[in-house]
């Protein structure tokens, strides 16, 4: 019985260690400047949707934006520009990559903040699936409902 208990504890600790190792490696990989090359959503419908991300940013407005991630203090920013964007300027956020809860399903959390790194929307944040991450490419995805239909948004980043 003791052997089974020790074996179970060992397996539990090693599985937690793998998740911690991924989180540490992801923080190292994500550090730096990225460009959001493409943003789209998967659907079989022919309906046109006005999809917004991160609260109220039109999906097309977020394409070609530069994102900076600073891993030593988990802060970052992105800049919106262009005449088609309703709200241009620099936007700050605090980010984290929590330990995976369900197998390999890792996510990234973004919490919008002001210049003083304080939340202005009651600590509201956004959780996205960290679909892929390596040294030069990153893909986020998340599901949303638009006009009663489930859409999967994908954001494709390239490292600068």
Task: Describe the overall structure.
The chain is built from 2 helices and 10 strands; from the N terminus they run αβββαβββββββ. The protein has an 8-stranded antiparallel beta barrel with strand order 1-4-5-6-7-8-9-10. The chain has a two-stranded antiparallel sheet with strand order 2-3. The termini are far apart. The radius of gyration is 18 Å and the shape is globular. The chain has helices spanning 2-30, 59-62, and strands spanning 32-42, 52-53, 57-58, 65-70, 75-80, 89-96, 107-113, 126-133, 137-146, 149-159. The protein has one domain (2-159): Lipocalin (Beta Barrel). It has 160 residues and is of the alpha+beta class. Keywords: Signal. It comes from Aquimarina amphilecti. This is Lipocalin-like domain-containing protein. Residues 1-20 form the signal peptide.
């Amino acid at each position: 019985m003791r052997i089974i208990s020790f074996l179970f504890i060992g397996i539990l600790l090693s599985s937690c260690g793998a998740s911690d190792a991924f989180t540490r490696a992801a923080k190292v990989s994500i550090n730096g400047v990225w460009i959001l090359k493409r943003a789209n959503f998967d659907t079989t419908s022919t309906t046109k949707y006005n999809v917004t991300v991160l609260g109220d940013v039109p999906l097309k407005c977020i394409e070609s934006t530069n994102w900076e991630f600073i891993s030593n203090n988990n802060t970052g920013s992105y800049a919106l520009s262009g005449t088609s964007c309703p709200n241009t300027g620099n936007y700050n956020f605090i980010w984290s990559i929590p330990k995976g809860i369900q197998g390999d399903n890792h996510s990234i959390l973004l919490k919008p903040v002001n210049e003083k790194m304080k939340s202005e929307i009651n600590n509201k944040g956004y959780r996205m699936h960290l679909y892929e991450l390596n040294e030069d490419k990153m893909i986020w995805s998340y599901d949303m409902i638009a006009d009663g239909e489930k859409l999967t948004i994908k954001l494709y980043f390239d490292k600068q």
